[in-house]
Design goal:
By secondary structure, the chain is α+β, with helices and mostly antiparallel strands. It is built from five helices and seven strands. It has helices at about 30-40, 90-95, 100-105, 105-115, 125-135; strands spanning about 10, 30, 55, 60-65, 75, 80-85, 120-125. It is about 25% helix and about 20% strand. It is globular.
């Protein structure tokens, strides 16, 4: 529906700051298929992740965080940060910042701007591309 506040599109370009992968406690939700892909990528023959990478939250699974709030897979190299499992990163990570919570209102988007220097700069995404990312259920 084109009456959404972001109908004219939005810009985003990752600056490799690592802010989306660190900070306050949170969750990176994983499907069982994503867990298997990450485990295979890491060379785990059992096709599952151990407690150093995965935690159970109720009936769901989330990536583990380090004591400082960093994602267990966040790597830093000088002023740049990157994902240690980028090729198989979860859908939640792949679709940042085009999450429904960020797109509910312009103020929600502006909140993302406060923590992510890549929001509102770089590549422009049109409405159709934004909606495709927002509604994506699988990264295949």
């Amino acid at each position: 529906m084109k009456d959404k506040w972001y109908a004219a599109g939005l810009a985003f370009e990752c600056t490799q700051c690592g802010n989306c992968c660190s900070g306050a406690p949170g969750y990176v939700w994983l499907t069982k298929e994503e867990i298997r892909r990450i485990a295979k990528h890491l060379g785990n023959k059992e096709a599952w992740l151990g407690k150093e990478h995965l935690r159970r939250v109720g009936l769901k699974y989330s990536l583990t965080e380090l004591p400082d709030g960093d994602c267990v897979f966040l790597r830093r190299d000088g002023n740049k940060a990157y994902c240690g499992i980028y090729e198989v990163r979860p859908l939640q990570c792949r679709t940042w910042p085009f999450w429904t919570a960020n797109l509910k209102s312009e103020s929600g988007w502006n909140y993302a701007v406060e923590t992510c220097p890549g929001v509102n700069r770089g590549k422009r995404y049109d409405f159709v591309a934004i909606e495709a990312l927002r509604l994506k259920k699988s990264w295949d």
